[in-house]
Amino acid sequence: MLLAEVARVSAEVAATRSRSEKTGLLAGLFRTADPEEAPVALTYLAGRLPQGRVGVGWSVLREAPAPAAVPTLTVREVDRALDSIAAVAGKGARTERGRRVAALLGAATAEEQRFLRALLGGELRQGALDALAVEGLARASGADPAAVRRAVMLGGSPGAVARELLARGPAALAGFRLEVGRPVLPMLAHTAGDVEEALDRLGPCAVEEKLDGIRVQVHRNGDVVRIWTRTLEEITERLPELARVARELPVTSAVLDGEVIALDGEGRPRPFQETAGRVGSRRDVAGAAAAVPLSPVFFDLLAVDGRDLLELPVTERHAELARAVPEPLRVRRLTVTDPADPGSRAAARGFAEEVLRRGHEGVVVKALDAPYSAGRRGAAWLKVKPVHTLDLVVLAAEWGHGRRTGKLSNLHLGARCEDGSFTMLGKTFKGLTDALLEWQTGRLRELAVDDDGVVVRVRPELVVEIAYDGVQRSSRYPAGVTLRFARVLRYREDKAAAEADTVAAVEAALPARAGAPSPDGPG
Ligand SMILES: Nc1ncnc2c1ncn2[C@@H]1O[C@H](COP(=O)(O)OP(=O)(O)OP(=O)(O)O)[C@@H](O)[C@H]1O
């Protein structure tokens, strides 16, 4: 498949608002795609690289070798070239990477150069491309869209499904089952304003503590244990204590869903950054595990001893979990069978208050009859947290002054738009500890695409969790809304930018009768 084809479809998909036209364009591309190249084309269309980061900065991308006259570059060749660029390391790496990028751009037509620059610069965001790709794949192969969607959730990525589906047709979908050793996308939650609302929306439910740790999916097969994050990054090597615990469970195989969290001597959570630091670091794992041990707390069981539990209701999965995992390793929960009963409602409220007193984040309320909807933000799980937070994307940062000279400080915060782009809704430098300031300076420099000496624009990839006191209308920012008293809580490296909160979610937090536009904004 020629890169030019992918670039053309990418531009055409972006240019039309019609969902069915977008799907048709993607289906057209898949019909002629080589099954081996389709997964790579898919990641490009979604604005991602299979290599993740390739370490190419904006100064390299600004170079403009003369374009080729005719398109000859194949997707496979571009993929190999990016592999080789990502692999460059050591002294002189920057120059060598620059040389290889220039060679790649020199082999591309003007149109392909534009596409590659946007792709490498992180500017090629396509809203909801993965969902559209599922429909496009279904149309191209004659498969049932629901069956393709389910295969993607269980197979972990649209690319893996595309490869099989295009090579072997709809029958290949049956091969995507929950398998121990192959992670599935985790089920996610919606938000409810308070416990009462959650009870009313769900009916009979379980109210569980919401621990402020890092989500883990643990697969055990005999003595082999593997661990993945929420975005399916494998972190087995980083959490030896979790692997040990999983190996001791009285089962032969299992797929467990839960959190790991650093707790103090009294069982209260330690600062989130300590948990995140452990999960994010490959360095001196034994030393780090001794200094900040992490406790696993499991809340779901997706498979056990060869049985797939995904379709079973919460009640049955919880009963299986209780058999497989001893109580101290399980999340605390209160079952509410009759949510209309005032005594039960009071008990649920009391449970949530007690969870907060013990220093946790809130509760997750789960409908008792719900199956496990892998990869879905299902309405069957509702989270309730008293502190307002939004997960926003860093679009740029300003060089600090005074004590913060040489550090990237004031963050430009973006919310996600429907088309996958981001719109700025405020700035903040509040809440940043010295350690966070140091860390973000390094990370943001890696993501930089432009620096005018005041503002450094970055690829919109880094998700930051922001606490705020309220949302108000504002004429200063393009979104027309801004946050009051925005402050940084932490970075969410376990979340992709495509999962950041949307402008619509921010607008939903506006007070019912918000006043006239105000020029005031945070920061
Ligand atoms: N008992 C629990 N059941 C489910 N999820 C829990 C529980 N305790 C903590 N969590 C965490 O809460 C998250 C549920 O909220 P959601 O699905 O919206 O994910 P999120 O976007 O990471 O949320 P948040 O930023 O609020 O942690 C899970 O991803 C998990 O990490």
CATH class of the largest domain: Alpha Beta
Spatial extent as radius of gyration: 24 Å
Q: What small ligands are held by the chains?
A: adenosine-5'-triphosphate
Task: Identify low-pLDDT runs.
Answer: 514-523
Proportion of β residues?
15-25%
**Second CATH tier, the architecture of the largest domain:** 2-Layer Sandwich
Number of helices: 18
N- to C-terminal distance = 48 Å
Number of strands: 19
Share of helix among residues?
Answer: 25-40%
CATH superfamily membership of the largest domain: DNA ligase/mRNA capping enzyme
Largest sheet at a glance? 7 strands, antiparallel
Return the domain count.
3
Mean pLDDT: 92
Q: What general outline do the C-alpha atoms trace?
A: globular
Query: Might you state the CATH topology name of the largest domain?
Result: D-amino Acid Aminotransferase, Chain A, domain 1
Q: Which structural class is indicated by helix and strand composition? A: alpha+beta
Quick overview of this protein structure:
With 523 residues, the chain is of the alpha+beta class.
